[in-house]
Amino acid sequence: MEQVMTINKIKKIIQNDYKRRQEIIIAKRYYNNDNDIKLKGILPDSTDPLRNADNRISDNFHEDFTDEKSAYIFTNPVLFDLGDKELNNKIKEVLGDDFKYESNNLCINATNCKVAWLHYWIDNDEKMPFQYATVETEEIIPQFKKGLKRKLGAIHRYYQDWEEDVYGKIKYYVWYEYWDETHCEKYKFRGKLDGTGLTHLPEFDESFEHNFGTVPFIEFRNNKKQTDDLKKYKDLLDIYDKVLSGFANDLEDIQQLIYILENYGGEDLKEFLGDLKRYKTVKTETGADGRTNGGLKTLQIEIPVEARKTILEILEKRIYKAAQSLDMDNSNFGNSSGVALKFFYRKLELKAGLLQIEFERGFNQLIRAILQYLGITDYKTINQTWTRNMISNDLENAQIAVESKDVISDETIIKNHPWVEDPEDEYEKVKKQKEEAQKRQQDIFKNAGGFQDEEDNDSTDKNEADTNKE
What is the tens place of the pLDDT at every residue in 292-306? Predict the structure, then answer.
């Protein structure tokens, strides 16, 4: 097997990727409520006697918007239908219990990092050999083939590792992996992720082949433009944090009075503070004319409260608008109709719909990889059902379902009923329930003498024939 990567080429790739990694790290910092205000603050560089407080208030708007989007889309897992119930159950079995968890991770990564990546592999030591997991976006550098179709040609993955020796000293390592359609190459270096000073450790190099016939990584983009959500409102968030932190600083600083002394008669500042505390007075010098030339004044900070309150309100509205998020302060939707509630969700739905378009392609690739693993080629299409986690008028939806009886199929009604989470399972329950009800009805008729089974009918016909014969 021919080696594709060289050590110098690997080092250059890692070094040139610094800027992209930093952009991702910044977005993840904001998701963890560690905004730029935490690093910089708002105090001027020069010492200001009126400014001692240094509050650095970081608001978690971005975390709320990201979690809201993910919960809205993936609280109810995506359902797959290949037109065959047995095949659907096999797909569900391979996806396992982690599918909803990984879907949520993919959504958060795509929102923060422009794109998310899912890696799949075969592990024969597991009960279910087909395994898959989300890979952190900053670890992945994709390499696409030339052409009109966006087709993945290779993946460069590198990540930090470390170990502690017997003396408690930390040694840092960098692992690098190259994946293409047939094989994987893996290298180990001593050093850190900045790419400088990396020392190759050839004794850990390894290479192996895989049988997927494609690069076993799947791309999940946040939107067609491949942009992150933070970019739309980061500037507004930074201003909001500065105004709020400055407001808190002023409130803290206003409690401190600045004393202005004129011709103070004491020797030092310590004596002044002692006289002020003990006698509630201070002495000042007397001029030649016998008049007092000294004095004591105080200086206090004035806070423009209304101006700051106004700008914070304006910024908050602009942030919600830019984020296409729900206005949680709106309390006018208590008993609203379904149309009004959908109108309330219109901006969030627009953002979610753009992500869904991109994620549908990624999930189709995952299902095809599973079908290849199962050795199944006889299938037509892959249908996906997405269910939003939104406030709804359940009474109205249930009434629509009842009124749709005999107009559309029971299967469609069940699929769109507000209380149903798994349409296939619910359809089978309804079918079984109808069969049991029909059986009970038959038993009632039979016990009442209004129904005879085939043996009773045959016996009756035979008796009547014998009577006629006599």
Answer: 455 555 555 567 888
DSSP for 290-340, please give it: S-B--EEEEE-----HHHHHHHHHHHHHHHHHHHT---TT----TT--HHH
What is the dihedral sign for C-alpha 164, 166, 168, 170? negative
Q: What is the pLDDT of residues 182-218, one digit of tens each?
A: 999 999 999 988 777 899 999 999 999 999 999 999 9
Residue 435: the pLDDT is 84
pLDDT in tens, 360-376: 999 999 999 999 999 99
Structure tokens at 144: 């696409």
67, 68, 116, 454 from 105: Cα distances, Å:
10, 13, 9, 61
Strand duo 140-144 + 130-135: pairing: unpaired
Q: Return d(Cα 470, Cα 468) in angstroms, integer.
A: 5
Residue type, 95: L
Q: How many angstroms separate the most distant Cα atoms in the chain?
A: 159
Torsion angle defined by CA atoms of residues 88, 92, 95 and 101, in that order, rounded to the nearest 10 degrees: 130
Structure confidence at residue 343 (pLDDT):
78
Selection from 17, 28, 24 nearest residue 142 by Cα? 17
In whole angstroms, give the CA distance from residue 320 to residue 314. 10
405 pLDDT band, cuts 50/70/90, is confident
- Distance between CA 57 and CA 52 in Å, rounded? 16
Q: Cα Rg for the chain, rounded, in angstroms?
A: 36
Q: Residue 170 — very low, low, confident or very high, per pLDDT cuts 50/70/90?
A: very high
Helix crossing, 234-253 with 305-323: angle to 10°?
160
Question: Cα dihedral angle (122, 127, 132, 135), rounded to 10 degrees?
Answer: -100
